[in-house]
Amino acid sequence: MTMFGLPLQALVGQLLLGLINGAFYAILSLGLAIIFGLLNVVNFAHGAFYMMGAFCAWMLLNYLGIGFWAALLLAPVSVGAIGIVLERLFISRLYRQDPLYGMLLTFGMALIVQGLFRNQYGVSGLPYHIPPALSGGHNLGFMFLPNYRAFVIVFSAIVCLLTWFFIEKTRLGSYLRAATEDASLTEAFGINVPLLVTLTYGFGVGLAALAGVLAAPITSVNPNMGADVIIVVFAVVVIGGMGSIMGSVVTGFGLGLVEGLTKVIYPSAASTVIFLVMVLVLLARPASMSGKGV
Fold first, then answer.
1. What is the model's pTM?
2. 14-120+144-290 sits in which CATH class?
């Protein structure tokens, strides 16, 4: 059986690859949407934190002998803590300024972080092996599904849903949303708004680091991996609605599938199809740029 001139097995394989990319887009855009939606900060350092998550997993394994499963927790916590320190030292000073200042600051932070890792480790990719428990795969009859890639898709979807539930359906999440609407009134109820803001930024950074850990066994760990993906993730966030949590998640997975399908139909457009969709969305629904379009 064929479709678009290709065997069904090849088509499903490309869609699976697109869904895996979509899983990374979803987690990264989720963290970016949280930081923008709740703090109104355009965090250009998000890609650098993604790269730091992958490097943290690699260093835990090679320097301390700590494997993948522990790195899933330790790397996001460690990188999130670094994000908290940077937020307290630098970003918190710009909350009442034009958002452009925050964007320029985080862009500069990204360049510094990437430069430090590039000087230390070079630009060659460092290998990070798939954990033994997730090696191999399953023959589905029409294709071979690697266990690790299936794990990434399912785990990413669970993380995204739990994050959405936490922000939208829990009391602490309501405090976060209230603090962004009216910080003074929220503080009047005895809630420590600066602490909430700091923890929110650290949580968003931790999500980026988690995506980096998941990506490490699939892609090589290198200082440029964040720069390669951050522009695409910004496009995903814009399409999903700036600051929209569920919009970013759905769009991340959806655009991953679109990208995979484009590689089948018209491969030369695969690297630009997401940006084409972003242009069409902005022309049709410009309110998406403010998060009101979703």
1. 0.90
2. mainly alpha
